[in-house]
Amino acid sequence: MGTNAIAMLKNYIKIAWRNLWKNKVFSGINIVGLSVGMAACIIIMLFVKYEKSFDEFHTKNIYRLNEVQKFPGMNASQKVGLSMYPMGPTIKADFPEIKNFTRVNWKEKYQTTYQDKRVFLPQVFFVDSTFLKIFDFKLISGDPNTALEKPNTAIVTAETAKKLFGDADPMGKTITHYGGDTTLFTITGVMQNVPKNSQLQFDGLFNFRTIYQSWMGSWSGNWLDTYFEIDPKADIAALEKKFPAYLKKRMPNPENVKYYELFLLPLKDIHANAGDIGLDYLNFQKFDAKSTNLFAIIAIIVLVIACINFMNLSTARSAERAKEVGIRKSIGARRFQLSMQFLGETVLLSLIALVVALILVALALPYVNNLSQRELGGPLYHSVGFILAIIGGAMFVGLLSGIYPAVFLSSYKPVKVLKGSVETGKNKGNFRNVLVVGQFASAVFLMIATIFVVKQLRFMQQKDPGFDREQIVTIPLSGQVQKNYEAFKQRLLGNAMIQGVTGAQDQLGSHLDQSGVDFKYNSEPLKNLAVTRLIVDDNYLDVYKIKMAEGKNFSRNKASIGKEYIVNESLAKMLLKDYPNAKQSSLIGQYFGFDSVGTIVGIVKDFNFNSLHHKVETMFLSNHADWGISQVSVKINAGKAAEALAFIKVTWDNINPDFPFEYQFLDDHFNEVYRADTQVSKIVGILAGLAILISCLGLFGLASYSAEKRVKEIGVRKVLGASVQNIVVLLSTHFVKLVLVANLLAWPIAWYAMNKWLGRFAYRIDINWFTFVLVAMLSVSIALLTISFQAIKAAITNPVKSLRSE
Amino acid sequence: MIKITNLEKFYRTEEVETIALNKLSMEVKKGEFVAIMGPSGCGKSTLLNILGLLDDPDAGSYLFNDIEVADFNERKRADLRKHNIGFVFQSFNLIDELTVFENVELPLIYTGVAAADRVKKVEAVLDKMQIMHRRNHYPQQLSGGQQQRVAIARAVVNTPKIILADEPTGNLDSSNGNDVMELLTDLNEQGTTIIMVTHSEHDARYSHRIIRLLDGQTVVENIMI
């Protein structure tokens, strides 16, 4: 029996192989379509797996503390990933289910020196000594339980150790940080490099107490992240319900309690499910799970489209296989055996497609890795589990696309097919039409989606944000260099290639900090507000060409520093909310600011200091350049970028020889702000393109089949006087109708989905009918182009030839 | 061997119902060679298909070796068919993608014969049909007579008890046709029961008995010899 099963299998494979070979066009279409669909699916699968792997290496039950803030002076409440210094220890003290806590503050480009070697570490964390008891970052040397117990201790990653010490043993060595004041750190541990799929990315861990200053302990600022290890049995929702009472009990100023709500987020959810949380600084490659799921759904649609090709082409060709079915049945084959045979063929085909798909994946991965900034082809790809999964998946795809043809073909009555009267029945044709419509509806939907996504992205990148960001170079300043800002500025302004130099504490396009300010309208009582602030140099509005709505710009004299405030229109509106009859201009000269000497001197038109995902929030600018400038903005002459940059570098090296010169064009910074959006639009666009390609392949196959089937009819029509055009129209009309129906079907769905997607943006494009009509025309043209090749070929054949072939 | 009683078969389209077999009764004994004749549309092929278990009757009884098979399901019919019945068709019906050898081997695979035995049996029957030298050719590479010889080889390779032939010479010239009829006669003489549908009085003369059908009913039975 065993050998017999093998013989049967051999027979099936033989027939399958010869059939594949005999029908090269159909096999080619199927294999190309399936392999492209599979490759897309495999890559998206790798992406999804990578996304899901974020922070999976931590074994403890870790949560991050987050806040919902609603300060007076803000239009809407905001969720932030930040918390206050005293929260960690007091929450641990008040709730027994909290097993441990650690706080993280971070510094970028942290300058460290060992002997004569100086290294700027891209990002370092200042943490409580419990950090390594909570997180599973592995030490190569040192004791994770005690390494950070004492002040002035530090753990460095292997990469950092290499940079600082070369091949020497780092343990016990002392490094120096020259900052505002000089700090020494003893290396007490060396850590493996942080895995790429960790939301926390750092080059070193430093003891928090080393930098502790008394102001930090107060309940006034949110400037760090707090993480808890919580008892796995704890009820998180119940715990969160107790936080308001906790705040009331602990916060020294009961007035402030109402501005805060606390909530917890599982560490493993932060990477993909914290889309609505702002000031989320320690969230490397934050990427919304919604987009990941969207990719997965579209990839599966692409694969299904390829499967549909298979079903359609198989059933369309069924007449050719009918005879074989009849013969096999008359010899004694059971229906089940025949079904198995046809399924075997599709499985074989999909396994061939898988091989091609794997080659495609290998070719595409470098590009995909570059686009996604992830390393998807890692060890995961070579794991036995993954390989088994894709082989299993390919076989499943084979079964899925084979099941309908198998059932359909094996149902043939031998009596009928052997008499040569195969009915390729109207019903089967209808089913095929439904599938084609389904395919094209998906493709049209994706086309429409791609166009709107790309348009929205371009809109965001090109919309006038209310300030000038062309040819502006931003240069970060830190530590010592801040002190040289004024000298640096004056030197730059001496060159004709430089049109303007200004400074601020933040870069536009990033989330700006908020701070408390006081406001008093005429003789009304004093109000405390907390709104977005931007500390700037006095010429900031000029360099950025931000337009004034009322009042005047900052004065250019030292005496007015810290006394003048400019608010945006949103804040002006908010300030006058209780005085409906007051004019905007009445705000000029009112009491406003950090202390009692400030007044509002001007109102600027709203500008988008944030990404266009968000509405313009209430904000003010203050000319406190004396507090330190951390971002210099240099407006340079268009067309002379390279020379200007070279000049800026020379000037920098002259004034700050010890610090590396770094810069970024503001435009590039904004591209980075929209990076996740760009990635989504590119991936959706590529998948949409593949969907269309595969659908057209299927259409090509069906058209060639239909032309083949109607050879005799075409011959007769031509003999009777039909022109080539007549024949082309005859063969094309049906398919064009299907594509039009697909459009009508896809439109409302696309309309709904796009409205929903665009709803996530505060500033969005409108959905216009023109795009829909354009896509309809485009899809019909593509379909026509595909069909016409076959139609014209059939139409120009000499009828004598086609009639004789019967 | 075969006994049918009051067999009925209708074909329905949307408007009309056509009676293909009208309470037909007949019997075929073991070792007989029976020819079925009649004008087009008299029900010959329908009868042959029902006898071959490719089709089922709407009413009546069909005893195959004293077993009632009229109500067999498709699977049981397929099992009975592969062990007992061989088919020869007018249009040969060979599988284009398989070689001569593979075509003839196919029934043996379905009945579960071991590989070594299969080779022996196929070679024996190809030898007998004088088509051995063409064993690795594909059907399209053969003449009509050769194709029909392959088809007969395939029908008999399983040594079925009965061969059903549907106009086996219909697509052949007279010389090739006679060869085929000689082959069938040989098989019959070796004990295989043969039922053959034919239009040809010439071919019918090779049989022991002619059953003439008209409008789904037996009109005459002629005993030959």
TrEMBL record, chain B:
One of its GO terms (cellular component) is membrane protein complex. PROSITE patterns: ABC_TRANSPORTER_1, ABC_TRANSPORTER_2. InterPro entries: AAA+_ATPase (IPR003593), ABC_transporter-like_ATP-bd (IPR003439), ABC_transporter-like_CS (IPR017871), MacB-like_ATP-bd (IPR017911), P-loop_NTPase (IPR027417). Gene3D superfamilies: P-loop containing nucleotide triphosphate hydrolases (3.40.50.300). It comes from the Bacteria. Signal peptide: none annotated. Residues 2-225 form the ABC transporter domain. Keywords: ATP-binding, Nucleotide-binding, Translocase, Transport. GO terms for molecular function: ATP binding; ATP hydrolysis activity; transmembrane transporter activity. Belongs to the ABC transporter superfamily. Macrolide exporter (TC 3.A.1.122) family. This is ABC transporter ATP-binding protein. The lineage of its organism: Bacteria, Pseudomonadati, Bacteroidota, Sphingobacteriia, Sphingobacteriales.
